[in-house]
Amino acid sequence: MSIRTPQQSAHPSTDEPSVGEFASASGDLLDRLRERTPLVQSITNAVVTNFTANVLLAIGAAPAMTDIPTEAGPFARIASGVLLNLGTPQAEQREAMVEAASAANDAGTPWVLDPVAVGFLPVRTALAAELLALRPTIVRGNASEIIALAGLGAGGRGVDSTDAVDSAIEAATAIARTSGAVVAVSGPTDVITDGERIVRCSNGHAWLTLVTGGGCALGAVLAAFASLDDDRLLTTVAATTAYTVAAQLAAAESRGPGSFAPAFLDHLHLLDADTVRSLAVIA
Amino acid sequence: MSIRTPQQSAHPSTDEPSVGEFASASGDLLDRLRERTPLVQSITNAVVTNFTANVLLAIGAAPAMTDIPTEAGPFARIASGVLLNLGTPQAEQREAMVEAASAANDAGTPWVLDPVAVGFLPVRTALAAELLALRPTIVRGNASEIIALAGLGAGGRGVDSTDAVDSAIEAATAIARTSGAVVAVSGPTDVITDGERIVRCSNGHAWLTLVTGGGCALGAVLAAFASLDDDRLLTTVAATTAYTVAAQLAAAESRGPGSFAPAFLDHLHLLDADTVRSLAVIA
Amino acid sequence: MSIRTPQQSAHPSTDEPSVGEFASASGDLLDRLRERTPLVQSITNAVVTNFTANVLLAIGAAPAMTDIPTEAGPFARIASGVLLNLGTPQAEQREAMVEAASAANDAGTPWVLDPVAVGFLPVRTALAAELLALRPTIVRGNASEIIALAGLGAGGRGVDSTDAVDSAIEAATAIARTSGAVVAVSGPTDVITDGERIVRCSNGHAWLTLVTGGGCALGAVLAAFASLDDDRLLTTVAATTAYTVAAQLAAAESRGPGSFAPAFLDHLHLLDADTVRSLAVIA
């Protein structure tokens, strides 16, 4: 956890951050994001491109969706982070995703795999396996998707999760250990693991599941934060915390999912490090 | 009309619901939708995917946009309902649409055809004819599109309707009788027919035409409601009524089409059966 | 400047409008737009299609996104104006763009080229050169894109502009002189030139850059206004002024980019000619 100085550690015998240090570092990383404006290439599904770009802009990152072959690879080399989301994987996008993952690996660009609705749908399931073998920096999905990706279950019914988050811990740990990725399982409590440590982030609001792209856009924010520090367990916790703290602030003043979405973008924009630190619920 | 009990009928000599029964059943079906969370596969145009998904989530359905060949068919078998919208019909989507319609027919999944801008544009017009021959459960369009689809006119100029709704009744009736579909013609008053009975739904607000996807998203809601009861004249009237009641509630507190859109999503989410029943204007 | 009557001219020795006349004519053209409801075909990137269509609807134009081969050309013949935006140029869209540009030229339909992120990305850069050779009516981009298009620089890093607007004046003038297009460079002050005269429009707000499509949708509005008068320097100034006046009115009552977006659509809808005239900052 490079952002932490040694004397801040509550676990002097290990290099692992304490829960309080995760909260503190989440605020630090938000400040760092605003200083650097990371450029995030999002090759994502047709439903959520607009919301994803607006989330990145609101929090302080720069979005780009360079998603065609021969352009996706060169762009992944200059991007700060890359998101590959399998929601509507047309042929050109599939080719572009493999190109981007390979170029990102070559250039050292962190990249996030979001295996939307893998399981019984053949094209995306094969593509997810191919991309997982390229060793993503982070894997994000709901419980059903993580279980399906690990080969332990039969997948969900589209983008819903029909499994509880805790039921996916075994699968998440297995993916993390075999691929080297940090794995984030979204749900009422987000569970994040690097294959050894398991961190639970419990901010957020259910309306985030009633705005399409509420989960998908988090994948892009994970990519943005991954560019800020080499400790990707930490950056994933920080991104998740900042994102879900903004969601709960927005929900508190909204009437339904319609008014929630613009309020969420406002709060991502207005969010400051102290608010993240004081409201973070991390265990 | 399976939702109606015999003693509620005002037309004891027939099996046709009365106008008051349509309003009452519209509320019942909204409750049923919230109980079942129907999964709606929307293969729709690139402009409205996001809004369509948010409309489905707001009213209580689950959206998915599985729109590539070899995935669209298997998904249509497990979906509660399917929407095929011809707004931006790229080659992969066209193949996926035919695959989804065939699989939906095979599995008994109700499906909606929205023949956006058919008439003089060659690709979508040929595709609409092909899909119509596969006998959609419901056809939804504006007057120009319905007239063009019936081969009675020359089509509109894009997504506008240049024809009055009543001018499309002959075309709508012809389509219904030859294809077996319930046909819904959108306009200030929506006209819905199964080829025999004609029902007019007069809720709504003009701002729904100033939010792109205001008509297209209704197609997805028609698919959601079609999964709830075998009487598709009834489910189409109910979906249209719930949708347009939410629109007029939203418009009453909005300043323009920008603030109307999130308010509409809020009201779809907050809408209850009694409000639908008391505000429904059905003739 | 056909909208101006001779006695209104402050430059009687030339046919060039004065700054005050630009402001006055901007209001006139907004009124004319509402009378005519120009039909704007937008072949644009996947991120901004929804916002672009909503902007056109809000200001009083009619959007259509007919973006596949064999349909794009016929549609460009009947459209009032065409936007070609290179943000996510899939193969079918690329073919459709060339088809639309050729048909637009043949039919006399004005068209706008937005060379998003041209420079080091190979596909769009080659396509931009091909389209520029077809002599667009208007070219719109940020400083980096305009410099790259003129072959004078190395391009930006995606959709950001890393160059100041004034640094692009030489490039903009060169493009205008060689292609015959009016060139609009977006920034805190928009610079617009026909290769001879340079006009600066200074309305707007920074939040327009934090809503994805804030620049791209302006391209569609430029196409709408271009259909209203043959003086495309004037129509470009008028479109830019109306658009950015609405933005600053919206920003004044918003809390962040999330609430700004619907407020912006409301103000585009509510905007009247006198407000445009009184708030215009043109030099």
Automatic annotation (TrEMBL), chains A, B, C:
Keyword entries, A-Z: ATP-binding, Kinase, Magnesium, Metal-binding, Nucleotide-binding, Thiamine biosynthesis, Transferase
Co-factor(s): Mg(2+)
Gene3D superfamilies: 3.40.1190.20
Pfam families linked: HK
Biological or metabolic pathway of the protein: Cofactor biosynthesis; thiamine diphosphate biosynthesis; 4-methyl-5-(2-phosphoethyl)-thiazole from 5-(2-hydroxyethyl)-4-methylthiazole: step 1/1
Highest taxon of source: Bacteria
EC number: 2.7.1.50
Stated family: Belongs to the Thz kinase family.
UniProt protein name: Hydroxyethylthiazole kinase
Organism the protein comes from: Plantibacter elymi (nom. nud.)
